[in-house]
Design brief:
Shape: globular
Order of helices and strands: EHEHEHEHHHEHEEHHEHEHEEHE
Subunit structure: Monomer. Associates with the 50S ribosomal subunit.
CATH class of one domain: Alpha Beta
CATH architecture of one domain: 3-Layer(aba) Sandwich
Pfam families: GTP-bdg_M, GTP-bdg_N, MMR_HSR1
CATH superfamily of one domain: P-loop containing nucleotide triphosphate hydrolases
Keywords: Coiled coil, Cytoplasm, GTP-binding, Magnesium, Metal-binding, Nucleotide-binding
Helix content: 40-55%
Strand order of the largest sheet: 10-11-9-8-5-7-6-12
Largest sheet: 8 strands, mixed
Strand content: 15-25%
GO molecular function, one term: metal ion binding
Main location: cytoplasm
């Protein structure tokens, strides 16, 4: 599908990196970006977001390049999206809808599909009127109530009922996860969660440490589901549970953060976070900030964190470890792809596990079998797809 990308620079953050990320998101969704239209504004236009003149410029680009869809690098209001589609006579997608579409394509587990559907319905509920514009002007009052109002009320009721049912099923799965975590807590198994920006290398690192063999691809949001593995870390520590969890991007839609809260709770209850960073990215500091913002939103900003600077082979760095003022390991430099520095990371995990408050570590030997699939696959619905995280791979 031939796509035109639209990005508006409001003077905040790295605009070029944001547009490049939109390009990757569009390709991940299956679109073919043909042209990119940019502009600078101090604030969005109320009617078209970009202003009427820039909207006409987009319209010319649509004709010249035989564009099939226009994708905005921003969240559009229902009115702005409706006005743009009417003016351009073509489908218009905003950043939130684009990410939701990618998630819908990638959700493999039962729980992942439920979470994506919930996020989509919550997003759709704000845009229902778009499908009934020909009935919007029906007069109200006794005897004059139009069919448009009736249909909208019906749609809203059906969506509301479905949202309620989805939340009930997700609550049930959340309780199952709580039971699994309590079981791990009784044995006082040290738990580690991988977090990071999409495509920072979390999945590759997870495979390298656990030999799990989960799906890895050089694309945004390669998979959405969380996988946990028990890994034996030696006699001093015993077993450690490592979870590959959700990854993030700029302006991750709020609906997704809310819908994936059950999956993200694995992060909230971890003893240690491995924050994986693409050391070769020129915007790595901004990406670190974005991840920390989401961690704060889900209540995981208090958990001890090691910054894992991955892809040192591409960044021209050497494997090493840095410590903070309290002599705690705060950074590990490695390459998950080549294996350089993996021994340093294992050593860091062992050191943190040994110093965990009141830890009575499980000494039983384990070969690294899977302990639970936080993606929520049900026994009645085995999923042959490799499970992974909420974002990102490579």
């Amino acid at each position: 599908m031939r796509a035109a990308l639209v990005g508006i620079d409001f003077g905040q953050g790295d605009f070029a990196a944001s547009v490049e990320e939109l390009n990757l998101l569009a390709r991940s969704a299956g679109a073919e970006p043909v042209t990119t239209i940019t502009a600078k504004r101090s604030s969005p236009d109320a009617a078209y977001f970009v202003g009427s003149g820039k909207a006409d410029e987009i319209g010319l680009a649509v004709q010249d390049h035989r564009i099939e869809i226009v994708i905005f690098n921003h969240a559009l209001s229902p009115a702005q999206q409706r006005n743009l589609e009417k003016r351009l006579n073509i489908r218009v997608l905003d950043r939130t809808s684009l990410i939701l579409d990618i998630f819908a394509q990638r959700a493999a587990s039962h729980e992942g599909k439920l979470q994506v559907e919930l996020a989509q319905l919550q997003h759709l509920a704000t845009r229902l009127i778009r499908g009934w514009t020909h009935l919007e002007r029906q007069k109200g009052g006794i005897g004059l109530r139009g069919p448009g109002e009736t249909q909208l009320e019906t749609d809203r009721r059906l969506i509301g009922e479905r949202v309620k049912a989805l939340r009930a099923r997700l609550d049930k799965l959340r309780k199952q996860h709580e039971t699994q975590r309590r079981s791990r807590g009784r044995s006082q198994t040290f738990s580690v969660s991988l977090v990071g920006y999409t495509n920072a290398g979390k999945s590759t690192l997870f495979n390298a440490v656990t030999k799990a063999g989960v799906y890895v691809a050089d694309q945004l949001f390669a998979t959405l589901d969380t996988t946990s593995r028990r890994v034996y870390m030696g006699q001093e520590v015993g077993n450690v549970v490592i979870s590959d969890t959700v990854g993030f991007v700029r302006e991750l839609p709020h609906q997704l953060v809310a819908a994936f809260r059950a999956t993200l709770e694995e992060t909230i209850h971890a003893d240690l976070l491995l924050h994986v960073v693409d050391a070769s990215s020129p915007v790595r500091m901004e990406q670190i900030e974005q991840v920390n913002l989401v961690l704060k939103e889900i209540g995981a900003d208090h958990i001890p964190q090691i910054l894992v600077w991955n892809k040192i082979d591409a960044a021209g760095l050497e494997p090493s470890v840095e410590r903070d003022e309290y002599d705690k390991i705060s950074r590990v430099f490695l390459s998950a792809r080549t294996g350089q520095g993996l021994d340093l990371l294992r050593g860091a995990i062992v050191e943190w596990a040994k110093s965990a408050p009141g830890a009575r570590l499980n000494q039983a030997y384990d070969t690294g079998e899977e302990t639970d699939q936080e993606a929520g696959e049900e026994a009645a619905e085995p999923d042959s797809s490799p499970t992974l995280t909420h974002v990102g791979s490579h």
